[in-house]
Automatic annotation (TrEMBL):
TM region positions: 6-22, 29-50, 70-87, 94-111, 117-136, 148-167, 187-208, 220-240, 246-264, 285-308, 328-346, 358-378, 398-418, 430-449, 461-478
Protein name: Cation:proton antiporter
Membrane topology: Multi-pass membrane protein
Family listed: Belongs to the CPA3 antiporters (TC 2.A.63) subunit D family.
Described function: NDH-1 shuttles electrons from NAD(P)H, via FMN and iron-sulfur (Fe-S) centers, to quinones in the respiratory chain. The immediate electron acceptor for the enzyme in this species is believed to be plastoquinone. Couples the redox reaction to proton translocation (for every two electrons transferred, four hydrogen ions are translocated across the cytoplasmic membrane), and thus conserves the redox energy in a proton gradient.
Amino acid sequence: MNTLTIAWIALPLIVGFVGYLFPRVMRYLSLGAAIASAGYAAFGFTQPPFTLELLDSFGISLQVDSLSCFFILTNALVTTAVILYCWQTSKTPFFYLQTIILHGSVNTVFICADFMSVYVALEVIGIAAFLLVAYPRSDRAIWVGLRYLFTSNIAMLFYLVGTILVYQSHHSFAFTGLRGAPPEAIALIFLGLLSKGGIFVSGLWLPLTHAESETPVSALLSGVVIKTGAFPLLRCALMVEEVAPIVTLFGIATALLGVCYALFEQDSKRVLASSSISQLGWIMVAPAAGGFYALAHGLAKAALFLTAGNLPSRNLKELEQKPINTKLWLVLVMGSLSMSGFPLFIGFSAKILTLKSLTFWPTLAMNIAAIGTAILYAKFIFLPHQPQDPKDPSPVKLGYWLATGLLIAGLFIGNGFYYEAYTLENIVKVLAIIGVGWLIHRVLIQHFAFKIPLILEEFDHIIGVMSLMLVLLFWMVLA
């Protein structure tokens, strides 16, 4: 397993080097590397957890277990879907090169068990994601990319200082060093990861970045990249029980904030991007179930972003007046139902497993968040639709159907990870939550026009919010 893990980590770098020498085969190699990751994750599920010490005296190590495998499988399936989606487009080998470098860096985060390795991987992710966001080379794309890169680098600066403080305390970079570390170290590391992952108010950079990126890049960012900030927090919460309540508290707050933020959006991509903030809260609120929920969210969100990019308009009010292609609508409905936790989809099993892991008050708060999720995804479910117009000059390409076919299949098959969720009590409860959400949407939200001020998303305010978050984290750690 050790040799296999090292070879698998090195594979994206080898693919990138070979693809640079032979650009014509770059997309084939990228697709093969993504599929190899899916195979590694599947094999990892059958193996007992193991730890690989790389630099023992510094605490540099890798850890592979079921939590890692859920995240790796999510990354593999979403990356494969994005490559298939782009297969018939004019994307250059450079795009596939950056995609597979991003894929490998994200995988590295998912098996790291120390702060320094995570730092290096997150920095590479920041550069690769910037190059993908700025890929169209338009002024708007370059500005959005630079905004993301600058915000990411500031977050990583806080994180690095916290990491050094942990090392000063224990002479080790291992996650377990968080136990007994100075409060300022915990606050700085948490701030860096919360900001990088787009969690709570420090993640308000996320809606603009994800909404303004190209469709396949949006799917990658929301499907897997933002989870690289959440994963180390989950791992720390499972290893160091003292920080678990902080992670759960931020999970609840993030789930509610994201729903409130997305509820009144009328731009389809901004709704999906803001919803990602809420879904990160679901991933964090129950660390032991976070991997399964990450898989459910990644598959559904990637399918929704890929479909939103093929709609005739981003404005939901305009789409309510102009019926969309029924086939695209069906994909939207299946992705939305899974996000809402409808039975038969993986989202149902993931939500039940998450709620099962919580105590009374967190369960109550997350049920409210679940109603909010049902309300905002009703915006897509109740869109008017009609069969495709034969005179439509822009039929959807085959790559889209291959990509969404893979993701939708995952939404059904993924139920097998927790089929125990299918009890009459759970089904009735979830259907009641969704029914209440749809009723509120039809009676109230659909007729209520309110535009959320975007002032908090301005660049200088994002940096200011980071400072406020640092004060809040200091207070929480000291309390």
